[in-house]
Predict the structure.
Amino acid sequence: MNLSGRRILLIIGGGIAAYKALELIRRLRERGAAVRVVLSKAGQQFVTPLSVGAIAGQRAYTDLFDPASEFDVGHIRLARDTDLVVVAPATADLMARMAHGLADDLATTVLLATDKPVLIAPAMNPRMWAHPATQRNLARLAADGIATVGPNAGEMAESHEAGTGRMAEPLEIVAAIEGLLGAARPLAGKRIVITSGPTHEAIDPVRYIANRSSGKQGHAIARAAAAAGAEVVLVSGPVALADPPGVKVVKVESAREMLAAVEGALPADAAVFAAAVADWGIAQAGAQKIKKGDGGPPQLALAENPDILATVAQARTQRPRLVIGFAAETEKVVDNAKAKLARKRCDWIVANDVSAAGGVMGGDRNTVHLVSASGVESWPTQSKEEVARALVERIAAALGG
Ligand code: C5P
């Protein structure tokens, strides 16, 4: 695979297998990748910054508190200005520090600061590899989404012990990198607009009506789509969530503002409407705070809000190829979703049961059914992140990614 234009940050840990990291750099550069290297303190016992720098074609980074390098790129930029972080060799100690989120040197700080995929190539003595502590750390890292290549079985370089613990060969690591960079970007070149969160409909400058929505599912979809390489515009109502990395976030309050922001973000290849838009706004929002008075509580006249999903799904120009709505239902989940699909004329509805028993609202798990013209698929209960990743995979397949 041609890796030209791809940026790889290689972290070399301290182990005899570090010598193989030099060949790994060569192989990656042969394929066109730009390789930046962070050499851990222990790594420097095995290979020197000079040899690494010569092979990488640029200086190696070694120290967290080196004022010259902090000025030059800095650990946050090292962590972010890359497509993939590779740790080779990943020693037992480095894996333990990663599993615990320590950040006491440049290598671990970069690993904690990065929002990019991470691949580790463990290398250690077979007994250290088999130790329950290492296996526990490995499971923790896998749960954090970190990919692993190797270790292989065979004779160790430093002793004549055999067993599992040899670092994967450079070409095996290259193949794992190609797999991650290729498979990880099925939405490259695609533009996706996503709505998330509630809308707030002003009653007056201090009061509003709204739907319940944490925005967790919509934000997770934005994150997953960006990780899959899409250019993402996230139109979000008021939420207490951080902006997903690598996503253009447009913050809005009301349904009308949300519609305008969505229309402004088109054209797009796909649009996902995960926001819980208020169906009604206040017909005449007060310009001043409404006072409690003798007249009793005010009578609020409601006015219907635009249906953003239906508007975009039925647009004559700039209709995205794939328009996906959500349906939060408390009963007859699938039947209601089918009716909604027909009424709004979108392509898919992700229907979820939000009756109190499920704990979906504000929670981290979701049970959804994917409803389309070709039928209904019921997905297992899973985290909102997993729902997001699965949905993004389906979007990529539908868009031919
Ligand atoms: O009709 P209902 O509100 O149940 O439909 C839910 C779907 O429609 C969700 O995808 C939601 O984001 C979208 N929607 C919208 N604009 C509205 C109301 C709902 O985009 N005004």
The radius of gyration is 25 Å. The chain has two domains: 7-181, 191-398. The mean pLDDT is 91.
